[in-house]
Write a structure and sequence with these properties.
Belongs to the enoyl-CoA hydratase/isomerase family. With 280 residues, this protein is an alpha/beta fold. It has helices spanning 35-49, 72-77, 90-113, 129-135, 163-171, 174-183, 189-195, 205-220, 224-238, 242-256, 261-271; strands at 10-14, 19-24, 56-61, 118-122, 125-127, 139-143, 147-149, 200-202. The strands form 2 sheets. Strands 1-2-3-4-6-8 form a 6-stranded mixed sheet, with helices on both faces. The protein has a two-stranded parallel ribbon with strand order 5-7. Helix 1 (35-49) packs across helix 3 and helix 5 runs antiparallel to helix 6.
Length: 280
């Protein structure tokens, strides 16, 4: 299968089974996020949304750390460090800075909205924007040397690209979320597991990667219509009432039930054989 994904800060491949692997690749900078990194994340996952060859995704990072967070050197000279126009008034500076933040948010949200399930593998540190990113993923697994920090208060700001919105819905413990967001303290992997931030912890990166790809291949073998529908409806229902979620699901499935996948899945189940599904 040809790989049409060429990026500067990401290594991207897609297997014949439909499992995409996205590896953040700035190990010399501890995978700190510069503008190019988050822009490419947005571009990559936006492309996945309409790529029928991609059925599931594993997200990992090269080197000894998932990410050190925001690239502070670039931040001091880029949009965070200087105004759009030094001579403009506060309203005009704020107008353009808001657009910059919205672009940043949109890039990270592309992981959530791409409809293909994303399994994140965290090794070493996962700081700041790393929490924003993995919070937008479907499944998070970690290694025993992983640790997590909502780091933004330590650089004088509130997290603004997803952590404060998604983390409370992932963990379900408001007191714990506020504690770690106010203090920026280190969260060890077993604590992350106990509160539900990650679903499992593995001894080594190799073990975690193996588990992630096994999971992703299992997902990729399912009906792509069923899988993207499930992710889409889970995201919708998380942000709406039960009644609204049920009504929307009825509308969505009135279309999705018209695929050939249901008949193929039922027949394969009766014959006790694996089903084969066309790409989305």
């Amino acid at each position: 299968m040809a790989n049409h994904y060429k990026f500067e800060c990401l290594n991207v491949s897609v297997s014949p089974e439909g499992v995409a692997h996205v590896e953040i690749s700035r190990p010399q900078a501890l995978n700190a996020f510069n503008t190019k990194t988050w822009t490419e994340i947005g571009q990559c996952f936006t492309q996945f949304k309409t790529d029928g060859d991609v059925r599931s995704v594993v997200l990992s990072a090269a080197g000894r750390m998932f990410t050190a967070g925001l690239d502070l050197k670039e931040a001091m000279t880029g949009a965070l460090g200087k105004p759009h126009d030094a001579d403009a008034d506060v309203a005009r500076k704020g107008y353009y800075h808001r657009l910059f933040i919205l672009d940043f948010q949109s890039a990270i949200s592309a992981v959530e909205s791409c409809d293909k399930p994303v399994v994140a593998v965290v090794q070493g540190g996962c700081l700041g924007i790393g929490i924003d990113l993995i919070s937008a993923c479907d499944v998070r697994i970690a290694t025993e040397d992983a640790y997590f920090m909502v780091k933004e208060v330590d650089i004088g700001m509130a997290a603004d690209v997803g952590t404060l919105q998604r983390l409370p819905k992932i963990v379900g413990n408001d007191s714990w979320v506020r504690e770690v967001c106010y203090t920026a303290r280190k969260i060890q992997p077993q604590e992350a597991h106990s509160v539900g931030l990650v679903s499992s912890v593995y001894a080594t990166t190799a073990d975690a990667m193996r588990a992630a790809f096994d999971m992703a291949r299992t997902i990729a073998a399912k009906s792509p219509v069923a899988v993207v529908s499930t992710k889409h409806l889970l995201n919708y229902s998380r942000d709406h009432s039960v009644r609204e979620g049920l009504e929307y699901t009825a509308i969505w499935n009135s279309l999705a039930h018209n695929s050939h996948d249901m008949a193929a899945a039922i027949m394969a189940s009766l014959k006790k054989q694996p089903a084969q599904f066309p790409k989305l």
